[in-house]
Design brief:
- The protein is an alpha/beta fold.
- The chain has helices spanning 10-29, 32-40, 47-71, 101-108, 118-121, 127-133, 143-152, 177-185, 227-230, 237-260; strands at 75-80, 91-94, 112-116, 136-137, 156-159, 189-197, 215-221.
- It contains 10 helices and 7 strands.
- The chain has a 7-stranded mixed sheet, sandwiched between helices.
- The longest helix is centred in the N-terminal third of the chain and has 25 residues, at 47-71.
- The chain is globular, with a radius of gyration of 19 Å.
- Pathway: Lipid metabolism.
- Residues 90-197 form the Phospholipid/glycerol acyltransferase domain.
- The chain crosses the membrane at residues 12-45.
- This is 1-acyl-sn-glycerol-3-phosphate acyltransferase.
Length: 262
Amino acid sequence: MLLIVPALSVNHAWRILAAGICYILFAIGALLPGIYIFCLALLPIDQAAKQRRVRNVIQSLCRFYVQLIQASGLMSYSLEGERPTAISGHLVISNHTMLIDALFVLAYVENLCCVVKASLCHNPFTYLPIKSAGYISNGDPALVERAAEKIAQGENILIFPEGTRNQYDLQLDFKRGAANIAVLSNAPILPIVLCCMPRALGKGQKWYEIPKDKSKIIMQFHSVLQIAQCIDTAEPRTRQYRKLTEWLRDYYYKAVSAVVGS
């Protein structure tokens, strides 16, 4: 029996190799926050200062990775809109199309407290950085209350309303978690729109399943939204949760359609 292997262009083959190199470097780099945390433990500084320093290291690493992805020719990306600086007490949301969506948001938004998968909180390689950075597990029964408390303290919360990567750009199956946090905290919402064309690193795809044509990632920073702009805040809270979830889903549907349809 003959094994038929599809022919790859030189550029396509290089991008598959570049993907492997990037993932190896990512795995190595994931150990750096842990080493840094051990060093921080020796310094006479308070917990809040340590947490902020860990988040700064994570942001620097994420910025390095997204720039490496572009420099290697694996993918290209562009930033659109006014990138926020020195924000506090915001809920940051994004649609979720790729495995590396969080890298882009972490790279370009400061002082983020992420809502992370519960499995990462039990992973021996990610447990210590997640704990030291003060991130919240999506399996925490008090997730909404904890996020609202952190927002009140001036932290920015990052959550993907879909909860997991979508299968296609306009699927956008928003859950209520983001809306619940926004309503409970009355936090301003910073929407970020991420689109990858052609799509890559989607749900169920292997790291080496790279599109023949190089993907371009567009990261859009939209204007901050106040909840009162979106829904009637005089309605019962449970109704506000549902209405805001629907409003945000419709907002993203229009925003993503404008990018992928252009």
